[in-house]
Each structure stands twice: as C-alpha cells, then as structure tokens.
C-alpha cells in the first residue's frame, strides 16, 4: 500500500510544466494527486512521523511555513500570488513527512530511489516535448523552458555513480544523466557547470574519507577507473552528436561564455549578472524603505520591479521591451535574496538551517554507517551530494520556483533516515539474537543515535 502511494506521490508532478498563467486544470490534478497520496502516506504511517533526528528538520520547516501566510496577509500580498510562490515550499514540507514514513517502512533504499529516477526522467523528456512541440519554441531560442528541476538530482546521481557505484554503468544513471546533460547543453545553462563542480568536489572529499577508512581494494579501484573511462567516452560522444546535429548550440555556447552580452551588444557586465543585479537591488531597496521589514520580509508573492538604473544596458540586448520593468512576483534568481525579501532574516535563517541541517544529517549517517572492508554505498552518499547540487543552484537561481523541485528536495533532506532506521533495526535484531530472553520493551531502538 505504502509503495503504491509513494509511486503516485513521486509521479504526481512528473508532467508538470512552466505555463505562462499557471494554475491550469491539469496542474490542479497534479496537485490533488500529490497532496492526496502524501496525506494518505502520513495517515498510514503516522507513528513514524516523529522519528529522530529527521523530525527536527520537519519541525523547523513546518514552523517556517506556518509563519509565511501571516506575513503575506500583513503585507497585503494577493492570495493567488502567495499560493503560487509558497506551493513548492509546502510540497517540500509534505515530502519531509513522506520520507519520514517511508524510512520507517523498511523499503530498500534503492527501491525508494527508483520512483524519483522514473519521475525525473519523465519530467526532463516532457519539458522538451512541451517546449519544442506544444509551445513550439525554436531550439536556437530555448532556455529555461527546457530545464527540469530534476537536473541537479541527476547530476549528483551521475557523479556519485562515477565515483562509488559498484554496478556496471547503471542504466538509470545513463538514462537520467544523458537526458539531463543533453538538456543542459542545448539550453546553454552555465550555472550547471558549478553544480557539477560541487558534486565532483564533494565526491572527491568523500572518496578520500573512504580510502582513509580502507573501504577500497586495489582491484575495485582499477574497476572504477575503467568504468569512469567508459562513462567519459560516452559523455564526449553525446556532446559531439548534439554539436553535429545542432551546430547553433556550439555558437550559442561560445557567445554565452565569451561575449558579455551574448548577442554582440556592449554591456558593462554579463547580461545575466545585470538582470540579477537589477532584481536584487530592487528587492533590497524595497526593504530599505521600511527597515523593520528586514525581520519578516514583504511576504511570499509580493510584487517588485527591476531597478531602473540597469534598464538602459539591458535594452541593448533585448531591444524594445515594454514589459522589461513590469511588476512581477516571480520568486527571484537567488534563493537567499528572495528569502530576505519575502521572509526577512527569519526566513533566511530557516533556509540556512534546513540546508545545513540536511547536510549535517547526511554526513553524520555516512560517517556512522561506513565500515572498513565494506565498499562505499552509493545510495548512502547520494543524499549529501544531491543536497549540495540543489544548494549550488540557490546562488544564481531559485529552485523553489518549481513545484517538482520542492517535492524532490524535501525527500532527499530526510533520505538519510532510511539508512539510520535500517541500521537501528539490524542492531535490534542482533540484540534479540544475543539476548533472546530480553523483554521486548527494552529492545526498542534508541530514538537518537
């Protein structure tokens, strides 16, 4: 029962898309599926909701979410704006609850990951179909419309598999990773270079730890080098195929990397940086008008306009754009700036604590459950690397603009609880074998390890 509900929950937003208006009837169906299955999971496994230490992350985020509607109402934010901007954050909170229950269900960690792999792959493929076929955006113009919020997950998964997988080039990594890197390459998205860099550095550090803890043998290392070489050749081949079939992609990459305006126009800085500066200055300027708003912010979904000081340069790139400085409630290009703008320093602290707490939780479980003589477990390492991948996106984008992103991030923040619960169960079984006469009550696993 739980397994079916979990599949429905993960697949609920697989066919989601970035519509101009949002809130279409199709998306309402997605929302009902996600909320309905998530609440059903909570109802079936409510006793597992308060398992430590994952419940600390749950309570932190739920406390933040309880605060947000009061700020929005107090600042006069339209209710529709609030709902659209807060929905990914609420889905993240629901995912925290869902994974708490699934962690207690006893399911294999790899089987818990499979629905995310399937839904993420569908989402990447669907975004391409929706953008290129339905909306009919020319491939030489397509940008963010093509990108799926599952991309950071697959980048992290591919890098972890590259370093730690004990399998022969996992098929799920080939499919998900191939779709992801292909979409990133076509959409000319530079920020994912940093995401891959974060994942690579994290895996190098974890590899060093695993070597120090003697989890590798020489034959295993040689086998990994062969597998890494094979994956590298396949990656280069995929890029060459895209470059040959779509030569404009390489031209666009050259312009994005080497020409500061991306179109040959002269601007004082990279146009992406200018748009972010115009947005950030506008947000912080609005807060400065009433300094007390720095504490709680102006509310999720509050309207703002880009700073006019940057518009003359941006027009060099975009030409005559009447809508360039229209009011918008788009949740920004930086999670941290928008956190201060919408929720103040309180919100900023909650975002910091949820990410840092998730990383600390993942590291604690990795350290506790890594044993000498046992090869590194790629699924044990995955939550920390994936969380870092999404964290890397928060500086130049806001992953919480997408509903599917909130769902995925919440699941991975508490995913380490799966391994911790299985370890506690193994300890309990060993204790029962060693002390068969011990009363059942005394053999319950400690809530804190």
Description:
This protein has 449 residues and is mainly α. It has one domain (2-261, 330-428). 69% of the residues lie in helices and 0% in strands. The protein contains 17 helices and no strands. Helix 2 (25-44) runs parallel beside helix 4 (79-104) and helix 3 (54-74) packs antiparallel against helix 4. The longest helix is centred in the last third of the chain and has 35 residues, at 335-369. The radius of gyration is 23 Å and the shape is globular. 39% of the residues are buried. The model is unreliable at 438-449 (pLDDT under 50).
Count the DSSP helices: 17
Radius of gyration: 23 Å
Strand content: under 5%
Total number of domains: 1
State the helical fraction. Answer: 55-70%
Structural class: mainly alpha
Mean pLDDT, to the nearest integer, reads: 83
Low-confidence regions = 438-449
Query: What is the strand tally?
Result: 0
Shape: globular
Secondary-structure element series:
HHHHHHHHHHHHHHHHH
Q: Can you summarize the main beta sheet? A: none
The separation of the N and C termini measures 29 Å
What is this structure's SSE topology?
Blueprint: H1 2-11, H2 25-44, H3 54-74, H4 79-104, H5 109-134, H6 151-164, H7 171-187, H8 191-212, H9 218-245, H10 247-258, H11 271-289, H12 293-296, H13 311-318, H14 335-369, H15 378-393, H16 403-414, H17 416-434
Helix pairs in contact: 1-2, 1-5, 2-4, 3-4, 3-14, 4-16, 4-17, 5-7, 6-7, 6-8, 6-15, 7-9, 8-15, 9-10, 11-13, 11-14, 14-15, 14-17, 15-16
């Amino acid at each position: 029962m739980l397994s079916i509900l979990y599949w429905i929950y993960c697949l609920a937003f697989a066919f989601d898309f970035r519509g101009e208006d949002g809130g279409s009837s199709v998306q309402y169906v997605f929302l009902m599926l996600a909320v309905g299955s998530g609440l059903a999971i909570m109802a079936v496994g409510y006793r597992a909701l308060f398992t430590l230490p994952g419940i600390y992350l749950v309570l932190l985020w739920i406390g933040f979410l309880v605060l947000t509607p009061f700020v929005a109402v107090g600042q006069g934010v339209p209710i529709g704006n609030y709902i659209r901007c807060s929905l990914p954050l609420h889905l993240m909170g629901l995912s925290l609850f869902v994974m708490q229950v699934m962690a207690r269900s006893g399911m294999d960690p790899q089987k818990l990951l499979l629905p995310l792999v399937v839904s993420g792959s569908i989402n990447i493929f669907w975004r391409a179909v929706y953008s290129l076929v339905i909306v009919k955006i020319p491939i030489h113009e397509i940008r963010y419309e093509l990108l799926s919020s599952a991309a950071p997950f697959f980048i992290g998964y591919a890098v972890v598999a590259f370093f730690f997988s004990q399998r022969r080039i996992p098929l799920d990594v080939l499919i998900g990773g191939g779709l992801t890197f292909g979409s990133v390459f076509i959409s000319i998205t530079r920020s994912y270079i940093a995401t891959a860099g974060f994942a690579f550095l994290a895996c190098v550090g974890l590899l060093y730890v695993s070597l120090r803890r003697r989890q590798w043998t020489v034959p295993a290392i040689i086998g990994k080098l062969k597998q890494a070489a094979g994956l590298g050749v396949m990656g280069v081949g995929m890029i060459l195929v895209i470059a040959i079939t779509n030569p404009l992609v390489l031209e666009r990459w050259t312009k994005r990397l080497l020409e500061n305006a991306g179109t040959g126009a002269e601007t004082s800085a990279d146009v992406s940086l200018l748009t972010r500066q115009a947005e950030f200055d506008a947000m912080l300027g609005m807060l400065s008008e009433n300094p007390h708003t720095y504490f709680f912010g102006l509310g999720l979904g509050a309207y703002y306009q880009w700073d006019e000081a940057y518009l003359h340069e941006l027009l060099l790139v975009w030409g005559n754009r009447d809508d360039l400085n229209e009011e918008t409630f788009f949740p920004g290009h930086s999670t941290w700036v928008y956190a201060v703008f919408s929720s103040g320093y309180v919100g900023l602290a909650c975002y910091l604590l949820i990410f840092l707490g998730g990383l600390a939780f993942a590291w604690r479980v990795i350290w506790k459950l890594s044993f000498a003589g046992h090869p590194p477990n790629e699924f044990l390492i995955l939550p920390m690397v994936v969380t870092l991948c999404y964290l890397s996106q928060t500086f130049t984008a806001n992953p919480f603009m997408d509903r599917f992103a909130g769902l995925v991030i919440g699941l991975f923040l508490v995913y380490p609880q799966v391994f911790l619960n299985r370890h506690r169960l193994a300890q309990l079984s060993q204790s029962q074998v060693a002390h068969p006469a011990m009363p059942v009550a005394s053999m319950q696993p400690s809530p804190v390890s």
